[in-house]
Amino acid sequence: SQTIHQWPATLVQPVGSPLSLECTVEGTSNPNLYWYRQAAGRGLQLLFYSVGIGQISSEVPQNLSASRPQDRQFILSSKKLLLSDSGFYLCAWGRVREQYFGPGTRLTVT
Amino acid sequence: AQTVTQSQPEMSVQEAETVTLSCTYDTSESDYYLFWYKQPPSRQMILVIRQEAYKQQNATENRFSVNFQKAAKSFSLKISDSQLGDAAMYFCAYRILYTSGTYKYIFGTGTRLKVLA
Description:
Oligomer: heterodimer
Low-confidence stretches of chain A: none
Distance between the termini of chain A: 38 Å
Number of helices of chain A: 0
Structural class of chain B: mainly beta
């Protein structure tokens, strides 16, 4: 069965510091991968999606970036965090008929 | 542009009763997928139920069923015999399929369901 991992689970970072969140998927090959952000009490905002290695589509212009160095690895990065980057970040993998989520990372920018 | 609207920010239901959560969407596609996801306090997103637009029969998963009205672009979730464990945020989602073959998902803003003992 497929499993999706995210780390770290919780992160507290000061404004202006860099960010790296990692997501890996097991049990499937060539999945579509997604990064979402969920602000407190809000819905899911799609940030990036990837259909293959090195292929990244950005949905929202911001100071975040994503990379996919391996088939089942998806990384969310920032060079300098803003207060507004705080939130709950979810990684997901999907096929045509389904999408499954990781456990998420809670990011607090102080 | 495709949009998903959940007009009920919060709903309450008595344990063992039935509740219906509403969702409407806008699309020009004829073939698509719709989903309901549950997000409990753990914040793990869980797929509850899926509906293919080409299927006229409403999807059912145990106590969860949908009322899919394609012409009205409505996709409501009915939870029967509500249990305390059903308390969660529920998200409606629509899958966009591009001509390139890639796809992505659009989510509504969610409905928080409270189950009263």
